[in-house]
Structures are given as structure tokens and as C-alpha cells.
Design goal:
With about 220 residues, the chain is of the alpha+beta class. It has eight helices and ten strands. Strands 1, 2, 3, 4, 5, 6, 7, 8, 9 and 10 form a ten-stranded mixed beta sheet that branches. Helix 1 runs antiparallel to helix 2 and helix 6 crosses helix 8. The longest helix is centred in the N-terminal third of the chain and has 20 residues.
């Protein structure tokens, strides 16, 4: 996947972070599914079906125009990390609602949250094998932090946002270790090959995390004008 300058966001050592364009959504989905299959097959013995693969791909295409997708790529234009945030339109029903049975209005009311807009966070994947081939060793958690930062900045553009997601145990742990107050709002169930929790991150927690995170070392991060 090649990137033109106008969809690039920043350079990080030997990697470039870019927005995914419409014509590259298929490659984005393929990368995420391949990483999910590799990881969850090894850890849980998951053998994905064609229906699951095409379902993910169709979902990414269907919601592209209400989503922002990011990808880190190396100098061979190979994707090494991804994330996606999707704005919830009035008619949308996200997996946390129909697959996990969560009534978001009930959660919002019970917790006394002020919510003007809802976002779905997903497609977080890092190819650690490709990262190990880079000239400079880059910790995967550093890429994850930057991918999260980009999506959080989108959510934080307007007040009273709410992030919802379906998070496996590892991602939940990583978010908490990064200082993000990701909250479980329902019981665990199997989803795309792994035990998964329905979770939320409030707008206030997004704002607080963005305000408190340390700046990435300026020697390794270069903004592209």
C-alpha cells in the first residue's frame, strides 16, 4: 500500500503513520484479520470461517465514511499497526449492543454520563514480527500509544463523547497499563477467537489521558507538514 504525502500524519523512526484511504480499506481489513487469526489461533486454537473474514471486511467498507482508520507502515509500505474509530449514527447498532446485549442508554443513565456522541474503537493490531525486522527496535506499546492518541484526539474534538469497544483480556490490560480508564460493562464472551469484554471509555477519561501522557521523544518523532 503506497501513501501520498497528503494522507501522512507523522514519521516515527523508520515508520510512517497515515490515514487509510477508501481504496486501501481492503488491505487494512486483511492485515487486521491476518493478525487476529495468527494470534488467536496460537493462543486459543481459533480457526476463523470465511463468513467471519468477509463480515469484517464488509463492516469496514460499509462504515468507512463515518470512520477514521490509521496505519503505521514501514519503508517497504508494509502495514505494521492499525486502529479504527467509528462515529455512531442514529440508526447504527454496534456489536456491543446486538452481540453483547448491552443497552447503551441504560449504561449512560445508570452512570450519570453526559454523552453527545458515541464512537466505536476497534481494529487495533500490531505485527510484532515485522517490528523486529526494523533497523531500530520499536516497542509495540509505543505504537499502540500513538495509535490510541490519534483516535482519542478525534473523539476529543467535541465535548461529551463516549467510546465503546469489544476488548480481549490482553488489550484491556494494555490500556489499563497505559493509564487509560477502560471500564468493563458486561460479562466476558467469545468473539472472533478470544474471550472479550464489552467496555467503555468516557469523554472525561479521554480528555484526562490526553492531558497527562508524556510527549513522545522529539528525536524519534517528526511531524509531516
Amino acid at each position: 500500500m503506497s501513501a501520498s504525502k497528503n494522507n501522512q500524519i507523522l514519521e516515527f523512526k523508520n515508520l510512517v503513520l497515515s490515514y487509510i484511504r477508501e481504496k486501501d480499506v481492503g488491505e487494512f481489513s486483511d492485515f487486521v484479520f491476518r493478525l487476529y487469526r495468527r494470534h488467536y489461533r496460537k493462543k486459543y486454537g481459533w480457526e476463523p470461517s470465511e463468513e467471519e473474514y468477509y463480515g469484517m471486511k464488509e463492516e469496514d467498507i460499509k462504515r468507512f465514511f463515518q470512520s477514521t482508520c490509521f496505519a503505521f507502515k514501514n519503508n517497504l509500505n508494509q502495514i505494521v499497526g492499525t486502529i479504527k474509530v467509528t462515529y455512531k449514527l442514529p440508526a447504527d447498532v454496534f456489536p456491543i449492543e446486538d452481540e453483547f446485549g448491552i443497552d447503551l442508554d441504560t449504561i449512560i443513565n445508570e452512570r450519570g454520563l453526559k454523552v453527545n456522541h458515541i464512537w466505536h474503537l476497534g481494529r487495533l493490531a500490531i505485527d510484532s514480527a515485522l517490528l523486529k525486522k526494523e533497523k531500530d527496535i520499536i516497542p509495540s506499546t509505543l505504537l499502540i500509544r500513538e495509535l490510541i492518541r490519534q483516535t482519542f484526539m478525534i473523539v476529543n474534538r467535541n465535548k461529551n463523547g463516549l467510546i465503546v469497544a469489544e476488548s480481549d483480556a490482553l488489550i484491556y490490560t494494555i490500556f489499563r497499563e497505559l493509564g487509560i480508564n477502560m471500564q468493563k460493562i458486561g460479562p466476558v464472551q467469545d468473539c472472533l477467537g478470544s474471550p472479550t469484554y464489552p467496555v467503555i471509555i468516557t469523554g472525561e477519561d479521554v480528555k484526562s489521558w490526553l492531558r497527562n501522557i508524556d510527549d513522545i521523544n522529539s528525536d524519534t518523532l517528526y511531524m509531516i507538514k
